[in-house]
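**Protein fold record**
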Amino acid sequence: MIAVDTRPIMLLESASNSPVEAALHLALGVGQVRAAEAAWRPLRARIRAEHSHWDWDYKSGFLVEPGARCLGVECAGRMQGMMLVREVGHAARLDPECGRPLVYVDYLESAPWNLRAGGPHQYSGVGQVLVRAAVRRSLELGYRGRVELHSLPSSRFVLRAEVWVRWLRSRSELLWVGLLRVHRGPRDRIRRGMT
């Protein structure tokens, strides 16, 4: 039986190119976040990821703040990715939704063994699952799917996001309708406004 705060999902196992069952946790606890950090930290440092300085132990302290939550993707008994979102206190910056509330993706990370920079990756689709969960949460909160994130400059996600959006929009997927604008912000970070 799947817990109330967990949803079944599918990931793609890279070695076999086959779908595998996984779980999307909608509200990770501090212990779960810290356990994932303990597993990820040594590997993250070894592959010299751009975000190797991230510390989810520290980030777990944000979970006591109103509207903060950490979502996670688990497969094969290990956390495959996590995302820290803020559900209050952020507003859209792009017209025509400027000033309206949105879900802000503060941090999003795939486990080091899922990064191509670390060699052959184990699972694909972790980032997609997490971003879709943020959009779904925005819809549940009445924010009409508005989500904002700032990616790291080397992020493959940003470059691929437009491809996903075009593909999904051509099939009229509700969750992605309205991801219309991408513009560069300070320090060449990408900003996305979803309506």
In short: Residues 30-46 form the longest helix (17 residues). The domain at 6-193 is CATH 3.40.630.30 (Aminopeptidase). The chain has a mean pLDDT of 77. The beta strands are 6-13, 18-25, 68-75, 78-86, 103-110, 123-124, 147-149, 181-184, 190-193.
